[in-house]
Design brief:
By secondary structure, the protein is mostly helical.
């Protein structure tokens, strides 16, 4: 498939596909008789996996490390597994953090709906704003 078709099917732009090739995230494509890139459909699975890694926050340098190990093939499975296990742990930690944030949001929303008791006095009403005294001078920025 040509780069335009790959872009359409993968959701990446042609520019991104060329960039990923250049930096080593994607293997170089075969070329047809006209010199145009000609991709095998199996690359879509790899692109989808890269998208998942990116979506879960894997830094590009680690994605490149994984891609290099994958390219080397047999004998790198243990290293690839370790890399993915480490990333999985970071994802789990981030999920726990997001879960805590979601709980706070849920409680705040429930408070606005009147289904829970306010926990702090200042949460029930905004704090009173104090005005600067008349004639107060601004400090000069130096």
């Amino acid at each position: 498939m040509k780069i335009g078709e790959l872009a359409k099917r993968s959701g990446l732009t042609a520019h991104t596909i060329r960039y990923y090739e250049r930096i080593g995230l994607l293997p170089f494509a075969d070329r047809d008789q006209s010199g145009l890139r000609d991709y095998d459909a199996s690359i879509l699975n790899w692109i989808e996996f890269l998208g998942r890694l990116k979506e879960t926050g894997m830094p590009i340098r680690e994605m490149l490390r994984y891609a290099a190990l994958r390219e080397r093939g047999v004998g790198t499975e243990a290293e690839r597994r370790i890399l993915l296990e480490q990333h999985r742990e970071r994802v789990r930690t981030r999920l726990a953090e997001l879960s805590d944030c979601l709980l706070v949001l849920d409680n705040k929303i429930a408070g606005y709906a009147g289904t829970t008791t306010r926990m702090k006095d200042y949460d029930a009403a905004p704090p009173e704003r104090r005005r600067k005294p008349a004639g107060a001078r601004r400090a000069n920025a130096r």
